[in-house]
DNA sequence: GTTAAACTATTGCAAATGCAACTATTGTCA
DNA sequence: TGACAATAGTTGCATTTGCAATAGTTTAAC
């Protein structure tokens, strides 16, 4: 018997929204959104990335990301470069300031995760992560298409 | 060692966004958003609800929900009533059309969930759900406060 | 019983989002 | 090589969103 409130998509969204709300609060004093933090943290992990790759990783529309990276660049947290050997891609990198800010915020992220999984065993957390990865790979990528239109 | 791409919040968001994208596509032909579907499915489950309760359950801002329910009402999928014994709350109910549409869409939701958890055992799915519930209850509710401001 | 406080929903407004159109560059194939 | 297709990113525009302010109603306090 189907129950919305016991369905995976619903529970997933509910947990995701709440965790994002909390983190959003934590980093608001630095005028960062969660997506912005993810861009920074991603770049710290990979050193550099194109816009398109970043969009995939951060799960955000490329047009949105373009503007978002624009504001990060304006704040000197990242740099944007078009390589000479390839004029259509844009390479995004962390600036020293960006790196410093990211490292300052990482403890909050870790702390938040710890709070979220409180009461779960290491094995349970591992299982959770692998379930989340599996669901992601079980579903098609929907590039471009697909009205999100609320209302 | 912290890695964004192996953190729970990140994996949660990634899976949630993707599953929502897919479902969004599925129901786009009925001009419904995921949030709208959740409102309908929720009302089917509970028969009636106030706006505030709905907002909690569906994890959206009450102002957003107010407008969303407004458009659902315009389409005769739900009804809005202010009870005589309490003039400040609004009771939202499914209309027969709303109920019919919801029941038409439920199979899609079930199918989607099945696709998402493909390859996982019943026990794994149960563990996943309980982990998602636990994380939700582990985190504070953030009523009202908290800039979400991207950009 | 009257005034103040709390609660519930709606609306204004500015910011953010996504799709589509566009620009610019690179790759293909004849 | 030259034209056409494909790729990558940006921008325009309409829609959506969230916060703050507001309006209306009920509860509490005195």
UniProtKB/TrEMBL annotation, chains A, B:
UniProt GO BP: response to stress
Every HTH marR-type domain range: 5-137
Cited SMART domains: HTH_MARR
Lineage: Bacteria, Pseudomonadati, Pseudomonadota, Alphaproteobacteria, Hyphomicrobiales
PROSITE patterns listed in its UniProt record: HTH_MARR_2
InterPro entries with a match to the protein in the record: HTH_MarR-typ, MarR/SlyA-like, WH-like_DNA-bd_sf, WH_DNA-bd_sf
PANTHER family: HTH-TYPE TRANSCRIPTIONAL REPRESSOR YETL (PTHR33164:SF43), TRANSCRIPTIONAL REGULATOR, MARR FAMILY (PTHR33164)
Protein name: Transcriptional regulator
GO-annotated molecular function: DNA-binding transcription factor activity
Domain of life: Bacteria
SUPFAM superfamilies: Winged helix' DNA-binding domain
UniProt cross-references to Gene3D superfamilies, sorted A to Z: Winged helix-like DNA-binding domain superfamily/Winged helix DNA-binding domain
């Amino acid at each position: 018997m189907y129950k919305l409130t016991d369905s995976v998509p619903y529970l997933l969204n509910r947990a995701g929204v709440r965790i994002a709300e909390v983190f959003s609060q934590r980093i608001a004093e630095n005028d960062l959104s969660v997506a912005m933090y993810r861009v920074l943290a991603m770049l710290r992990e990979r050193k550099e990335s194109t816009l398109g790759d970043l969009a995939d990783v951060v799960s955000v529309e490329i047009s949105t990301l373009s503007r978002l990276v624009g504001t990060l660049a304006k704040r000197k947290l990242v740099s944007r470069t078009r390589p000479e050997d390839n004029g259509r891609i844009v390479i995004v990198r962390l600036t020293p300031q960006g790196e410093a800010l990211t490292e300052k915020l990482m403890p909050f992220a870790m702390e938040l995760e710890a709070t979220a999984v409180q009461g779960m065993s290491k094995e349970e957390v591992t299982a959770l992560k692998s379930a989340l990865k599996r669901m992601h790979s079980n579903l098609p990528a929907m590039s471009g298409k697909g009205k999100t239109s609320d209302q």
